[in-house]
Design brief:
By secondary structure, the protein is mainly β. It has 2 domains: about 180 residues, no CATH class; about 80 residues, Immunoglobulin-like (Sandwich). Helices cover about 10% and strands about 40% of the residues. The radius of gyration is 23 Å and the shape is globular.
């Protein structure tokens, strides 16, 4: 009797683990779309010959829908930024393209209306296949993002990209991946230029790097319009009451992680303090420097964003 009971328990445990592993597999393989409302890309342009100069910044914001040929598309706005001590102000913003996901077949389509500096291989004013996230090792990826070169998938791996575990299609182009839900490590439309030492890289060669991917509004993603009042974006934020700024501590995140960002604003939107990396070393203002009683705080950790107000008593 006892042996029968032990056997039944073993069978139960086996099937429980089996279904758990199957459900985990399906959960891991859920498709992550690109055409997401509020997706923001921030791209840094580096130059191999001028590392010591300030970087050039641009990016994209996905917002709003439109219907073209009876298909629902997400609008993609192209932006140029001005970096002011870690706060990125939008100095130019224009409709650039539309994108849509075929979630069943795991494909991304686009119509581009103009070229950008690092994505001029894809056609304009016509629908084209931007990404195919259904490919298997040995298959050829859609070509225009890769400069119309024949690029093949060599393996499929899962890596953390901006706070999410994403399916990455490793290629035979220097092992640069196509990343589900994002594009490439260079951006959404960008040809993934890479710097490879010792292979004849030209001096003064520009290449794009996707520095930040975020889902939220402009304020939450650290992109504000230059010269405009952005205070309306903070109206509904949670208020935390503290004795003074020195009594405020960052909790709930790994404070020594290099992906952490801490931004402290005055109530009128002026950036007071920016810190990236080890937040345990954030130099909070001394009590004698607390000229105001209300501040805005934004924390970014991977794809996690937390914005709130802190009010001193």
């Amino acid at each position: 009797m006892k042996k029968s009971s032990i056997f039944r328990k073993c069978v139960f445990i086996f099937f429980a683990l089996f279904f758990l592993s199957i459900s985990s597999l399906f959960a891991q393989d859920n498709y992550i779309p690109i055409a997401v409302e509020g997706a923001h890309y921030r791209i840094r342009v580096e130059n191999t010959g001028t590392y010591w100069t300030d970087s050039t910044w641009y990016g994209y914001a996905l917002r709003g829908d439109t219907v073209i040929n009876n298909q629902l598309w997400k609008k993609v706005y192209h932006r140029w930024f001005e970096d002011r001590d870690g706060q990125f102000f939008i100095v130019w913003d224009s409709l650039h393209a539309v994108v849509r996901d075929d979630t069943i077949n795991r494909k991304v389509y686009s119509i581009k209306f103009r070229h950008n500096p690092f994505g001029y291989y894809c056609p304009l004013n016509e629908e084209f296949l931007l990404y195919d996230f259904s490919v298997m090792p040995g298959d050829t990826l859609p070509s225009c993002v890769w400069g119309n070169f024949p690029v093949h998938c060599t393996s499929i791996q899962y890596y953390q990209y901006f706070g999410s575990n994403r399916k990455c299609f490793i290629t035979d182009y220097w092992e640069v991946p196509a990343v589900e839900g994002i594009g490439t490590p260079s951006g959404l439309f960008e040809f993934p230029n890479i710097l490879v030492k010792g292979y004849g890289v030209e001096p003064n060669y520009d290449y794009p790097v996707l520095e930040n991917y975020c889902i939220g509004n402009d304020y939450e993603c650290g992109q504000l319009y230059l010269g405009e009042d952005n205070s309306h974006l903070t109206e509904n934020l949670e208020v935390i009451y503290i004795k003074d700024l020195n009594s405020f501590f960052v909790t709930g995140i790994e404070r020594d992680n290099e992906d952490c960002e801490f931004l402290l604003y005055s109530f009128d939107g002026k950036l007071i303090l920016y810190k990236r990396g080890n937040l345990s070393e954030v130099p909070f203002l001394n009590s004698q420097n607390n000229y105001a009683s209300l501040y805005i705080v934004r924390l970014r950790y991977g794809n996690l964003i937390k914005s709130f107000k802190i009010k001193t008593l």
